Amino acid sequence: MLVRRIARPLFAAVFVAEGLDAVRRPQAHVDRTEAAWQRLEKRTDLPPSPPTARLRTFVRAHGAAMTLAGAMLALGKAPRFAALTLAVLTLPAAAVNQPFTSPKAGHGDGPGENLQRRVLRERFVRNLSMVGGALIAAIDTEGRPGLTWRVQHARVDHAAHDARKAVASTVKDARKAIS
Question: How far apart are CA 138 and CA 115, in angstroms?
Answer without folding.
Answer: 34
